[in-house]
């Protein structure tokens, strides 16, 4: 009798254990033995029980039936793959650009104006062109930093900042990312309209490229119009990369909404996310090089976007054919620098 009662209590204990460690039943065949409405289960338990292709779904009365999807472990394994690829390429892009430019600076130094400052200025970009540039570039920097936080924040910033501050930072970073994207798209569109005509590839560009744009040898200045071949590469990379980032960004911002015939299926969103991350990394690489050459890398270059005008000797060295055009057509664009006597 005692033996029977012992066995009974052991049986009940096993049943209780099974009941408490049981996993709630999703809509799939695999976990039908448990019921999520009868007991609470942790997210981790669900993840461990469900296979990649399985999901926990609810019911929705709105037209978008995809909104019923609640938990899908496949998305988590996808996130691992995505993070791995995007993280690796972003690290390679940023470190590659920074190390490459540091080496370039050590070997070549700052590219100086060979003919020294002339004391004459030539108008290069109007206020509206500079506004477009700074709108596009300022917003790009915000997007890049908030995007980088999404990819690396948990690894780099979380341990240093702690959970509370990191979650506040990431929340506002995500909100900024969603809204600042609009400013970027506007800046990108304006820059395209203002500069596309000057960025059509020409025969001249091949010669410029063959001579490495004179970047690697002092005193070498291949002729160029308003934008040289290097700048045309920056321009088209920004336009193509910016357009892809904008499109995939919108598809991710409005899941399920069709844009240019894309975006209806949940299965495709992973692809847009991957493209968004990889293109962002590639464009960041190019833009780091651009920022370097437009600031510390080349004497006199920043003025073009800072003040709008540049020194005439700088312009003659880097954009000789453009200076010829301006001199032939609009001589009033060339003026003495404030407070300086023009050099002989
Ligand atoms: C934040 C630091 C930046 C600085 C200091 C900077 C500086 C400059 C300068 C000086 C120019 C005019 C070059 C010339 O006179 O020929 C320029 C042009 C341009 N910038 Fe930026 N820029 C910055 C960021 C960006 C960003 C983030 C983007 C794109 C998202 C961008 C895209 C462009 C494009 C497309 C042009 C015209 C083509 C070219 O000159 O390469 N810039 N920038």
From TrEMBL:
Quote one Gene Ontology molecular function term.
Answer: electron transfer activity
Q: Which InterPro entries match?
A: Cyt_b561_bac/Ni-Hgenase, Di-haem_cyt_TM, FDH_cytochrome_b556_subunit, Formate_DH_gsu
Specify the signal sequence span: 1-31
Q: How does it sit in the membrane?
A: Multi-pass membrane protein
What keywords is this UniProt entry annotated with?
Answer: Cell membrane, Electron transport, Heme, Iron, Membrane, Metal-binding, Signal, Transmembrane, Transmembrane helix, Transport
Write out the annotated subcellular location.
Cell membrane
Give the domain of life.
Bacteria
Please give the cofactor(s) recorded in the UniProt entry for this protein. Answer: heme
NCBIfam families for the chain: formate-DH-gamm
Q: Which PANTHER family match?
A: FORMATE DEHYDROGENASE GAMMA SUBUNIT (PTHR30074:SF6), FORMATE DEHYDROGENASE, NITRATE-INDUCIBLE, CYTOCHROME B556 FDN SUBUNIT (PTHR30074)
Q: What is this protein called?
A: Formate dehydrogenase gamma subunit
